[in-house]
Amino acid sequence: MGDTIFGKIIRREIPADIVYEDDDVLAFRDLNPQAPVHVLFVPKRAIATLDAATTSDSELLGKLLLATAAYARREGLAEQGYRTVINCNEHGGQTVFHLHVHLLGGRQMHWPPG
Ligand code: AMP
């Protein structure tokens, strides 16, 4: 797969407001926030889409979700709640083809989404 803007952020080639990092996962604030807290969690090893993930990615995907949940808990979002979103391909609204989890919190979310 080709490189993306998130690959450049992971390699520190372009700036981002990084809020969390471990060996496998990087998290930074979305440039165009849709909620008071809007953070993107990305695996450092790129997977283009959720559809492209395979069983060999199971551990990494688990780490990605658990890192997201732990951050939300640390930031005090868990009790009131938050939303996580993974957009996949065109109808999902995916624009950056490096799998990422959107963490949205700090306001009431509504369902169904638009
Ligand atoms: P998606 O549409 O699910 O692929 O989400 C891509 C997200 O990346 C959007 O919410 C954008 O606002 C966000 N985004 C794009 N470029 C950057 C960037 N350089 N730094 C932070 N967030 C970005």
Q: How many structural units, i.e. domains?
A: 1
> Are there runs of 5+ residues with pLDDT below 50, and where?
none
The fraction of residues in strands falls at 15-25%
Radius of gyration: 14 Å
Number of E-type strands: 5
CATH superfamily: HIT-like
Helix-strand makeup class: alpha+beta
At the third CATH level, what is the topology name?
A: HIT family, subunit A
Query: Mind describing the biggest β-sheet?
Result: 5 strands, antiparallel
Ions, cofactors and other ligands present here are:
adenosine monophosphate
What is the molecular shape?
A: globular
- CATH architectural category: 2-Layer Sandwich
User: Counting H and I runs of at least 4 residues, what is the number of helices?
Assistant: 3
Succession of helices and strands: HEEEHEHE
User: What's the CATH class label?
Assistant: Alpha Beta
Biggest sheet strand order reads 1-2-3-5-4
Brief account:
The protein is α+β, with helices and mostly antiparallel strands and 114 residues long. It contains three helices and five strands.
Structure, explained:
The chain is α+β, with helices and mostly antiparallel strands and 114 residues long. It has a single domain, classed as 2-Layer Sandwich (HIT family, subunit A). Helices cover 24% and strands 22% of the residues. The protein is built from 3 helices and 5 strands. It has helices spanning 5-10, 58-74, 89-92; strands at residues 18-21, 25-29, 37-43, 82-85, 101-105. The protein has a 5-stranded antiparallel sheet with strand order 1-2-3-5-4, with helices on one face. The protein starts with a helix and ends in a 9-residue tail after the last strand. The mean pLDDT is 97. Adenosine monophosphate is lined by residues 5, 16, 28, 30-32, 40, 87, 93-96. This is Histidine triad nucleotide-binding protein. Residues 5-114 form the HIT domain. GO terms for molecular function: catalytic activity. The active site is at 100 (tele-amp-histidine intermediate). It comes from Dyella jiangningensis.
